[in-house]
Amino acid sequence: MALPAVLAVGAMASVMAEGALAASFAVSGTSFQVSSGKLTSEGLSSYVQTDRDIDGKGHPVALLGIGDATLSDICQAAEVKTPVGTVVFKLTAGGSAGEVTASNLIIDGEDLEGDARFGTAEIGRDASTLDEVPGVKGERGKFGLQAGDITVSGVKSHAWSATGGNFRLKGMKVDVSIGGKKCF
Question: At the N or C end, where does the chain have fewer CB atoms within 10 A?
Fold first, then answer.
């Protein structure tokens, strides 16, 4: 039962932008951590949007559409309140088991930290004209950016959702524990 939740919360968003793809789910109301030693991707598109939780509360996010991504490792963690106390739900993969890959990865993030290199960057492009990642377009007249390729080392992010077309999580491990350790 946890695996669908892991994938919905996991490996780095519902594409909920107006004019893009239809919203596929309401976010849970709990953001989560995502970290990786290194992320590389062919294609990046990004614009600002608002995710909505089940109660309709809005959460401003930067929608990051990533084409074909490779991560050296991945850690995702969320604190979840339960009747027995606050539990840390943590998923890890990659590292010594091999790289993690994802295609058409969409992350609705509230922040992103790391050392980045963008190739063929276009900053300030109209969000409705983004074309580096298929299906990732924002509203007409809104700010957008895209790049032909990207490399980010020391990735740290807080996100509301992440979805992708295809994930390969080598060495995946799920840990659920009271007072467990998060990613960072």
Answer: N
